[in-house]
Structure of ABC transporter ATP-binding protein:
Amino acid sequence: MSTVYLTEITKQFGSVTAVKNLDLTIQEGEFFTFLGPSGCGKTTTLRMIAGFYYPTTGKVKFNERDMTKVAPEKRNTGMVFQNYALFPHMTVFENVAFGLKVRKLKKSVIKEKVTDVLKKVRLDQFIDRQVSQLSGGQQQRVALARALVIEPDILLLDEPLSNLDARLRDEMRTEILRLQREYGITMVYVTHDQVEALSMSDRIAVFNTGECQQVGTPTEIYN
Ligand SMILES: Nc1ncnc2c1ncn2[C@@H]1O[C@H](COP(=O)(O)OP(=O)(O)OP(=O)(O)O)[C@@H](O)[C@H]1O
């Protein structure tokens, strides 16, 4: 687990300032949400925590470690995307095992870890199914399992439920919260959906045009 410190972060893309002078601390074990309209800098900020982008100026720290320019694979973060980003021609097992194979773990260990995490997301009966033969909700569970299996310190989720219908979205909200409590993991969640943010988060940062306007608990933000 890690506390994330973002200090005076600015990110420019040419003449566009995507994020401006951002200061945020995300506590260890917290469910923290970035809320705001399209184009306000939520995804860019998430990607700077993941290491897919480096800030133009400012600092990213996990606990005491300066991570500002550390490569993504050296951060021990997991990421879940809106479009799942799974390998459609592979089975559920192969998708979830992928990150463990890259880390060169023993076959027996991989089998055990994958079976265990698939039970946690309630997909164990689909272990040998091709991903392309699963529903959207099931695919998003595979994406969650794939991110969780490497035991990340921080799990980053970028609008993970926006491709699902309302009923599934509801179900998956509960599911993600359950996993967060079970793993005690720090989660950073990006959404433009106020209900989602208010119902799931320990704290919320409200973004607008590249700036963080307010940070608070759901009750504080609602008021
Ligand atoms: N790789 C890039 N190159 C140039 N401009 C970019 C890039 N990524 C983002 N931007 C710009 O930075 C701003 C913030 O984008 P960002 O994707 O962070 O917003 P967002 O709040 O996540 O929006 P959405 O909810 O639509 O994903 C936007 O104006 C966007 O056009």
